[in-house]
Amino acid sequence: MNRAALADFLRRRREALRPSDVGLVPGPRRRTPGLRREEVAGLTGMSVDYYTRLEQQRGPQPSEQMLAALARALRLTADERDHLHRLAGHGVPRRTPLDSHVAPALLRVLDRLEDCPALIINSLGETLVANRLAITIFGDRSQLTGWARSDAYRWFTDPASRSIYPTVDHDRQARSLVASLRAAYGMAGDSSRAGELVRILLAGSTEFRTLWDRHEVSRRFEDHKTLLHPEVGEIEVDCQALFTEDQSQALLVLTPTPGSEAEEKIRLLAVLGSEHFAEPSS
Prior knowledge:
The structure is a single chain. This protein is α+β, with helices and mostly antiparallel strands. It folds into 2 domains: 3-87, lambda repressor-like DNA-binding domains (434 Repressor (Amino-terminal Domain)); 104-276, Beta-Lactamase. 31% of the residues are buried. It has helices at 3-16, 37-44, 48-55, 64-73, 78-87, 104-111, 132-138, 151-157, 170-188, 193-204, 206-212, 261-272; strands at residues 118-122, 127-130, 224-229, 233-243, 249-255. Strands 2-1-5-4-3 form a 5-stranded antiparallel β-sheet.
């Protein structure tokens, strides 16, 4: 672990960012350039004292999970993320089509979306990051662990996960999830995490086996969705997807028709926030 270089790198990357770059309001009387230490700490979920000690060359070696959080908070590119790991004395994460490092370009767009639900997922349907409105509707899926992070895994192993969609849409959603997983499988290969997930679902779900045998392949998301919230009921939205160049991650933006009842419901959720409602099953 190169403490001096790590501290300098973190400080320079922090000072190179503006609050607006990470979705924060600048606020008055900012005497230093870039983000404050407490802002970086808040974005990563670590204590201010812990982050401060890293910049002062006296902190413990950060874990790989902590480095991943720092890379996301500081909007590091994949090359910068790898450099951060080397400075901290860790091996460089393997770059695969299912790399969980969030593309900074998608994060910059997400940071500016405040009035509509938006989330970034990888090709296994794992939520990497979501804005407040998306968490209000779907729950905080980024906190799930193991295979439960995958939309496809939850759909075919946990019936409660389907409650976010009307029953009439379940068949279409199941086909979409399988077609998307087959696209990820074809891109990443049989020995990848996608291949492992396919084997798990083939062994555990008759429905999945039937749909997998259809050989449908698609990365396209449905343009229109009806979502169910336990307090406000049905929310009809259009879904737009912005993919990274390698198609490994997508920013999903859910927008209601202007002036519609769905728009009013989303405004209500934005005002009341996720803490007011019971979290939906997901």
